[in-house]
Automatic annotation (TrEMBL):
Lineage: superkingdom: Eukaryota
InterPro entries reported in the protein's UniProt record: Acyl_CoA_acyltransferase, GNAT_dom
UniProt protein name: N-acetyltransferase domain-containing protein
Xref: SUPFAM superfamilies: Acyl-CoA N-acyltransferases (Nat)
N-acetyltransferase domain segment(s): 23-188
């Protein structure tokens, strides 16, 4: 057992911050680490993410990330749990988080997310993004704009953002390079004022 694993607590799990018919989000708990590393250790997931998302994704990577999320003030990264058939315990399905911008863009926060492959196509990301965006604007009064950057070939994520009410603000041509492949980055935004029009 590593030093990180030794810190695993017992007792109640953190309470959900948002609940939808298909999933809920709550702060991470060290007990999520095995499920998180198992789902995150997937080339099909990582190819759409930044290089700082480790690959392979080990149990220690998972423990280190979860520890960092719990030390953050405020906590801005959350675990997504699938709740098929209204199962209130749920099953770890992925992650979603916010990164505040800096300087004059401090009121623009980046939204990031991933869902494990076995949960794809169940509407989980769409519901989670919609509910999490609402929670973010309600929780952080200073937040003015949520932003997401998507690689041009990530049709699933583009669809998620569009269904969640984000607007495509532009394309940063050739802005990203992963494994030697240059990609366009599509920039999506959702402003606080636009939240009212969403269901
Ligand atoms: C992108 C991702 C979050 C989608 O999660 P999901 O829970 O499967 O998404 P949903 O089930 O809510 O699907 C939303 C829509 O996208 C569509 N979609 C999903 N995957 C798709 C794909 N590969 N190609 C085309 N459309 C796709 C769905 O059909 C659905 O549209 P519809 O309701 O009109 O049928 C998930 O595939 C993922 O985590 N991928 C790897 C990491 C990643 O890309 N993160 C986002 C980085 S910007």
């Amino acid at each position: 057992m590593t030093s990180l694993q030794a810190e695993t607590p017992s007792g109640a799990l953190p309470a959900p911050i948002v609940t939808t018919p298909r999933c809920y989000l709550r702060p991470y708990d060290p007990r999520d680490a095995p499920a998180a590393s198992s789902l995150a250790n997937d080339a099909e997931v990582v190819r759409f993410l930044r290089d700082r998302f480790p690959h392979p994704y080990t149990l220690d990577d998972s423990h280190a990330f979860i520890k960092s999320t719990l030390e953050a003030k405020p906590v801005l990264d959350f675990a997504v749990f699938a709740t098929p058939n209204g199962d209130c315990a749920g099953e770890f399905a992925g992650g979603m988080g916010l990164t505040p911008g800096r300087d004059v863009q401090s009121r623009t926060w980046e939204l990031g997310y991933w869902i494990g492959q076995k949960f794809w196509g169940q509407g989980i990301a769409t519901m989670a993004v919609k509910a999490f965006a609402r929670w973010a604007f309600q929780t952080f009064p200073e937040l003015h704009r949520l932003e997401a950057e998507v690689y041009h070939m990530n049709a699933g994520s583009i669809r998620v953002l569009e269904k969640a009410g984000f607007t495509k603000d532009g394309v940063r041509r050739g802005a990203a390079c992963k494994k030697g492949v240059v990609m366009d980055v599509h920039v999506y935004g959702l402003l606080r004022d636009e939240l009212g029009g969403l269901e």
